[in-house]
Amino acid sequence: MKYIFYHGTSEENAKKIMQEGFKLGQKANWKVKSKDGFVYFSSAYAPFYAMKHSTRKLALIKVEIDSIDLYPEDDWLMRALGKPVYSQEELDAVDFRKYKKYWIQSYAQMGNVSAKPDKVTILGVRYFNGEGLLYKCDPVISPINYKIMGDYYKELTKWVFDGNAILDFKRFI
Q1: CA–CA distance, 80 with 17 (Å, rounded to integer)
Q2: Is residue 173 classed as helix, strand or coil in its secondary structure?
Q3: Which of 17, 5, 12, 21 is nearest to 56 (CA)?
Q4: How far is CA 126 from the centre of its chain?
Q5: Burial degree of 36 (CB within 10 A; 0-12, 13-18, 19+)
Q6: Nearest to 132, CA basis, from 106, 100, 170, 81
Q7: How confident is residue 54, by pLDDT bands cut at 50, 70 and 90?
Q8: Is residue 115 a contact partner of residue 38, using CB atoms and an 8 Å limit?
Q9: DSSP states of 28-67
Q10: Fewest Cβ atoms nearer than 10 Å: which of 106, 135, 157, 172?
Q11: 61/122 Cα distance (integer angstroms)
């Protein structure tokens, strides 16, 4: 079964990805670098991950990934292993292959997954200005927030990818 996800990044990075595909070993967005060998995708939080770069000139890349190629996302997995706060060394020590089957829980509980870049089919890209995004929400990316707000964030992500103005998004929770 194939699933649709989004990858949030800067416009500059998205242009490179659209030309060359997803590459490993790119600069890290956070203090702890993502697990080597994997790219991260979300059904809900991609616009907010893109904002790590700025609030202008952002991009959402829409992808399709077969379920047999999915892995859990690192933050979800580390929480599941009892380490909600973890170091680079602790993440590097985890063998993702051992936990591959837990991608479905990662997806169901946080809307996030990972995959190896050669297993990802890029479906398209949408460039956008994220200035109004925080007027619509300021997410805490966590299982409890996803449980409460996940559908809202999924709809907002699709809204942005479809080219609609962020401030025109209206949905009651």
Answers
A1: 31
A2: coil
A3: 12
A4: 15
A5: exposed
A6: 170
A7: confident
A8: yes
A9: PSSSSPPPTT-EEEESS-HHHHHTTT-SSSEEEEEEEEEG
A10: 172
A11: 7
* Interatomic CA distance for residues 120 and 59, integer angstroms: 17
* pLDDT confidence band for 30 (50 / 70 / 90): low
Helix (H) or strand (E) holding 148: helix 143-161
Amino acid of residue 145? N
Confidence of residue 173 (pLDDT cuts 50, 70, 90): low
Q: Where are the domains of the chain?
A: 2-168
What SS3 class is residue 99? helix
Find where tokens 């997803």 sit.
22
Residue 145's CB is within 10 A of a number of other CB atoms, namely 17
141: left (phi over 0), alpha (psi -120 to 50) or beta: beta
